[in-house]
Amino acid sequence: MNERIKAIRKKMGLSQSAFAEHIAISRSALAKIESGENRPSERTQLLICEKFGINMAWLQTGQGDRLKQCACDELIPRIQRILTAYPAIGRSLSRLLNVMEDSDLARLSELAAKIEENENDL
Predict the structure, then answer these.
(1) Whose CA, among 17, 99, 103, 122, lies 20 to 30 Å from 26?
(2) Helix, strand, or coil (residue 12)
(3) At what angle do helices 2-11 and 27-35 cross, to 10 degrees?
């Protein structure tokens, strides 16, 4: 699991300090997890999965899809609503979707949710 956690952090482009902050542990605790010296607690595993859209089974065993299925399943209808409501944004997003990595798609899903929540303010 330590190598998968390290891979998630690197894929997200985060330093150990920044990643540790996201999951509410110290940088030194993360370093020990990544080196295999310590095993992450269940709480830490849950936070990694929640914050970064990671499939818990993959995190624990390496089996299955790396990302939670819902991240992409939720993204498409949100994007479609944005495309309809905001055509200029939609054109840019459709070009970007073809080159985005999984971590970027998870972030975009979060952004789309925020846009929907604040639709009336735009």
Answers:
(1) 103
(2) coil
(3) 120
pLDDT in tens, the chain (122 residues): 999 999 999 988 999 999 999 999 999 999 999 999 999 999 999 999 888 889 899 999 999 888 776 555 666 677 777 777 877 776 776 677 777 777 777 777 777 777 777 665 54
**φ and ψ at residue 114, rounded to 5 degrees:** -65, -40
Q: Distance from CA of residue 98 to its chain's centroid?
A: 18
pTM for this model (two decimals): 0.57
Residue 48's closest CA among 36, 57, 56? 56
